[in-house]
Amino acid sequence: AQRVTQPEKLLSVFKGAPVELKCNYSYSGSPELFWYVQYSRQRLQLLLRHISRESIKGFTADLNKGETSFHLKKPFAQEEDSAMYYCALLMDTGRRALTFGSGTRLQVQP
Amino acid sequence: DGGITQSPKYLFRKEGQNVTLSCEQNLNHDAMYWYRQDPGQGLRLIYYSQIVNDFQKGDIAEGYSVSREKKESFPLTVTSAQKNPTAFYLCATQDRNYGYTFGSGTRLTVV
């Protein structure tokens, strides 16, 4: 069965420091990977997806099929980046529902 | 405005009582989903519906039921068989590119 692992429950960095939120997955097929973000008192929303290869709010993520990872990175963290981040996987066959990781809370300190 | 409306925002349930959570959308999306969000466990799939009059069990369907009589609506009933119902419940729709739009959630507490 598919699985998404986010090993860090909490990541605390100082403003201006680089950020890397880790995401590893297990799935035998060819998945699509997403990052969702939930800011305080806001709805969960899509941050980026690997097929679009976009940079949103300075964040990027590269799918590494060899390491089965989809880590989220930002070179210089901002206080407004503080939020809960979820990595999610979509299988290429069968059920089209997203499978989510347990989430990582990012705290950016001034 | 367009989007997903979940109601109520807060819900209290007594032991042995069934309660129904509402999810309405005007995005014209075919697929709708119910997730349960618990601290440290992320989002777990309860039920989903790809099309009207059809729905499928997710990973934690026991103690829950759904219906999909209209495209716009996908209500979730938490039955008395659900032993640990206290949680935050999220409804989502899925667009044709498989991206999700989420509702604002319902926090259910057993009293």
What does this structure look like?
By secondary structure, chain A is mostly beta strands. Chain A has strands at 3-5, 10-14, 19-21, 24-26, 32-38, 45-49, 60-61, 72-74, 83-90, 99-100, 104-109. Chain A contains no helices and eleven strands. In chain A, the strands form three sheets. In chain A, strands 2, 5, 6, 9, 10 and 11 form a six-stranded mixed sheet that branches. In chain A, strands 3-8-7 form a three-stranded antiparallel sheet, with no helix packed on it. Chain A has a two-stranded antiparallel sheet with strand order 1-4. Chain A is globular, with a radius of gyration of 14 Å. The model of chain A has no long low-confidence stretch (mean pLDDT 93). In chain B, strand 5 (42-51) and strand 6 form a beta hairpin. Chain B has 111 residues and is mainly beta. Chain B starts with a strand and ends with a strand. In chain B, the strands form two sheets. In chain B, strands 2, 4, 5, 6, 9, 10 and 11 form a seven-stranded mixed sheet that branches. Chain B has a four-stranded antiparallel sheet with strand order 1-3-8-7, with no helix packed on it. The mean pLDDT of chain B is 93. The radius of gyration of chain B is 13 Å and the shape is globular. The chains are: A mainly beta (110), B mainly beta (111). At the A-B interface, strand 5, strand 6 and strand 10 of A face strand 4 and strand 5 of B.
